[in-house]
Amino acid sequence: MNGQQRTEPDCGVRxxxxxxxxxxxxxxxDASDFVTEHLIYREDAVLDYPQSGERTRGRSNIQGQRAGQxxxxxxxxxxxxxxGDLWVTELILAYDGKPSYTVSIMEFSGDRLRTKxxxxxxxxxxxxxxxxxxxxxxxxxxxxxxxxxxxDGLENG
Length: 157
Known about the structure:
Layout: H1 8-30, H2 34-37, E1 41-49, E2 54-57, H3 59-67, E3 73-83, E4 86-95, E5 98-109, E6 112-121
Parallel strand pairs: 1-6
Antiparallel strand pairs: 1-2, 3-4, 4-5, 5-6
């Protein structure tokens, strides 16, 4: 075994450390603790918002951009899944009390966050019950459901 390979227990320990770092990150985000919130980022991290095309490079620029936002934000994590270098957080991000359903896809390098892609879904659609034909598949943005409502994003209810 060369120095680059890790054993399964080492990978499990790293996953636990990343999950703990993510929990600290989201708790600090919710508390508006801008110092702790940004400890997770590498110096050369990239924060990407695909819907708006915004991209911020560098930990200090990400921190400055966040600190300059005037609205009061609350973060409620629904679930964190992942392992190795790829992690996903589903959360409700409320700006001034208005919820946005958010997915953050995070790529790590070592123990620091390298790239974070965040996608906001402003509208909440009630889940379609199986009795009405729900199939647990993703719905394409702009598609129409059986009840005639236009969907604006991925559904997973």
